Amino acid sequence: MSHPILPFIPAVFVPVKDLKRSTEWYADLLGRQIAPQPGQEDHGIYIFNLEGTQIILDSNTWGSPPMIMFGSDDIDASHAFCEEHPHETVTDVFRDEFVSVFHVNSHMICQTNRDLDLPKAKPAHSLLGGMSRIFIHADNLQDTIGWYEAFVGRSTEPDVKFGELPYIRMDRGAHLLIDDNRLSQSPRKFYEQLQLDMRVNPIAIIDTPDLTAALDHVRSKGAVADKGIESRLGVRFFLFHDPDGNALMVCEKVSR
After folding, report:
1. What integer is the mean pLDDT of 18-35?
2. Which of 119, 153, 158, 251 measures 20 to 30 Å from 175, CA to CA?
């Protein structure tokens, strides 16, 4: 039997306080027209359909950490697997005509039941070329590697583009990059709802063909990028924050 959790990240959920404000901000940043799909605003989300992995702005999760969605072809098999896999929480499966989903820890597992009729991915912004990596912030590197290798049924490899940090290659879209804070060097954030201190930023890595121009661009859109261009583990990058404090890392374009 194939592994029940697919090696594919359809989306990453970004918690926002004001959906309208955040949608307008990201649309301006990414050079996209706002084209809400039926029911998106009613459900407190807005989807930016990028190349491979989507950004879902989610006002329902404000006050919680960002969340990674993994795909499944058999939601019941995935749920049974997660119940046996080490976890803090596993929710029941929610089903409607479009999707079947459940949560394990801070991740969502999703099976599509019918076509969601999302708009096709538009060409990436010339300076923000889509997500290449999603961060997993690790306190204990070996424990985290073991959990995710079993979770997606794939072995880690050294990521030669990012200081040989361990990563798990997905079939398409963004890959998982496991960082013990050597690259991010980010502070922890306290989540009162969870009563936990966690590192959550940056959420992902965005590729760019021109790092200096990309920095000028995000600053012109009101992003906070006060440290400018940095270099660490042989990687040149900058971090920027959206109006809600969510951070993304922008790196010179790397091959996957």
Report:
1. 92
2. 119
Q: Over the stretch 86-137, which tens digit does the pLDDT of each residue have? A: 999 999 999 998 899 999 998 999 999 876 555 566 677 899 988 999 999 9
Query: CB under 8 Å to 22, separation ≥6 — which residues?
Result: 14, 16, 46, 57, 59, 242, 243, 244
Q: Is residue 244 in a domain?
A: yes
Q: How far apart are CA 110 and CA 132, in angstroms?
A: 21
Q: What is the CATH number of the domain that holds 67?
A: 3.10.180.10
Taking the C-alpha atoms of 67, 2, 86 and 99 in order, what is their torsion angle to the nearest 10 degrees? Answer: 40
Q: Where are the alpha helices (DSSP H) in 40-140?
A: 75-84
Q: Is residue 193 part of a domain?
A: yes
Confidence at 206, pLDDT banded by 50, 70, 90: very high
- Residue owning tokens 């996957």: 256
Q: How far apart are CA 36 and CA 71, in angstroms?
A: 23
Return the residue matching tokens 């923000």: 128
Indicate the SS3 state at residue 220.
helix
Model pLDDT, residue 256 = 47
Contact assessment for residue 241 and residue 162, using Cβ atoms and an 8 Å cutoff: no
Query: What is the rounded CA–CA span in Å between residue 39 and residue 20?
Result: 14
Prediction pTM value: 0.92
Q: Which domain holds residue 67?
A: 11-112
Does some domain include residue 118? no
Residue type, 180: D
Stretch among 15-19, 87-91, 120-124, 162-166 having the lowest mean pLDDT = 120-124
Tally of structural domains, the chain:
2
| Cβ 31 vs Cβ 156: under 8 Å | no
Residues in a beta bridge with 240: 248
